[in-house]
Amino acid sequence: MTLSGVALAASFIPTIAHADVLEKIADRGVISVCTNVNNPPLAFLESSGETKGLHIDLLNDFTQRLSTQLGKTVKVDLVPVLPANRVQFLQQGKCDILFTSLTVSEERKKLVQFVEPYYYAAGPALLTKKGVTFSNWEEVKGKAICSNQGSSWNVPLEQKFGANIVAFQTQQEVDQSLRDGRCAALVSDDSYLQARFLNDKEGIWKDYFIQNLTPFTEGPWGLAVRFNEPQFTQFISSVIKDWNKQGTIIELAKKWGLKPAPFAVKAHEEAIKL
């Protein structure tokens, strides 16, 4: 994993006493990171086997800062996860940090420690076959909507709008079910669906289009750790604050073909005023 195309600032490295997890990382010389490697352009495997993406660029920068903080080189052990098991993997100690597009919710706050400030945000959007149109979210009532197990959009779509969520464990299953006509639409983060078309070199999705309805919510994404890790949490928080100040996430979003989320733009504008 290498960083390119963006000047990532590593000048602000606070001095923090080691928490237990930091001591373990220092002893191992390795940080275990749970992420979804089937989520372009955030993280994905190239044919060469190398993992790339926006999250991977951020992770490289984070690891450089962590190495400076600990006074030794820290390597990354990527632990692949799916939306259905990512929280459980963190809880079970299979990784030190959950570094993926995990939407913050009150329910998830009971399960993991989200680090503030949150670093990005996305809203829900629908992917449908051309000719299938939804003018508002109320029109999903009674319709089969394909999604990932564990997606934060599933509960509100079912409970508030009456959709029939058909959830699958992997993104490939979700995609194939839409193409097979098993659902009227696929719901996902708008940023992910943007990338779907940018990376569709084979024209698989040429007969489909994104329906960006007025979002019923914009879900902030947070990096997550286990509870009672205050020093590790403080270190992560300081890194995110510097990303906001430097505009790192905005530049990386552009690099990977995404329109920067208003959430990220606002965070940068507020950070440079401090």
What does this protein structure show overall?
This protein is an alpha/beta fold. The chain has 2 domains: about 20-120 and about 220-270, D-Maltodextrin-Binding Protein, domain 2 (3-Layer(aba) Sandwich), CATH 3.40.190; about 125-215, Periplasmic binding protein-like II (D-Maltodextrin-Binding Protein, domain 2), CATH 3.40.190.10. The protein has 10 helices and 15 strands. The protein has helices spanning about 20-30, 55-70, 85-90, 105-110, 155-160, 170-180, 190-200, 230-245, 250-255, 260-270, and strands spanning about 30-35, 40, 45, 50, 75-80, 95-100, 115, 120, 125-130, 145-150, 165-170, 185-190, 210, 220, 225. The strands form 5 sheets. The protein has a 5-stranded mixed beta sheet with strand order 11-10-12-9-13. Strands 5-1-6 form a 3-stranded parallel beta sheet. Helix 8 (about 230-245) packs across helix 10. The model is unreliable at about 1-20 (pLDDT under 50). Belongs to the bacterial solute-binding protein 3 family.
